Amino acid sequence: xxxxxxxxxxxxxxxxxxxxxxxxxxxxxxxxxxxxxxxxxxxxxxxxxxxxxxxxxxxxxxxxxxxxxxxxxxxxxxxxxxxxxxxxxxxxxxxxxxxxxxxxxxxxxxxxxxxxxxxxxxxxxxxxxxxxxxxxxxxxxxxxxxxxxxxxxxxxxxxxxxx
Length: 163
Known about the structure:
Blueprint: H1 3-14, H2 20-27, H3 31-43, E1 64-72, H4 81-88, E2 93-98, E3 105-111, H5 114-125, E4 131-138, E5 144-145, E6 148-149
Antiparallel strand pairs: 1-3, 1-4, 2-3, 5-6
Helix pairs in contact: 2-3
């Protein structure tokens, strides 16, 4: 992987809908080279998926999201990996991270209602072997996701100027 691959990855991460021709102009590569590099990065599973950032509040779907922090007793020879693998299989889990600090793992989960999220935590997460404690934080409103601002930005108000 070279600097051109890294540049390409940064651009694609920001906007995965750009054409090979547009990417070629931005990276000073040929469109054919861009396509070959992207294909190689996809094959190597560096690029895992192309996705959209959606402001779910504007859909009116009423989906609830929560951050669940877990204190976990790591397994001998496996650490946190097997527990994380088991939790990541649930469709409700949108992201799962090993973190530093008071808690060990952080999950982002979604459900149709707060009760559904609560039931998921109490029935599937908390009873999991080696999980010692959970802390659930319901997300009230998202302002930015994955580097994308979700609120409509107002134009800066121009102040009147006079002599």
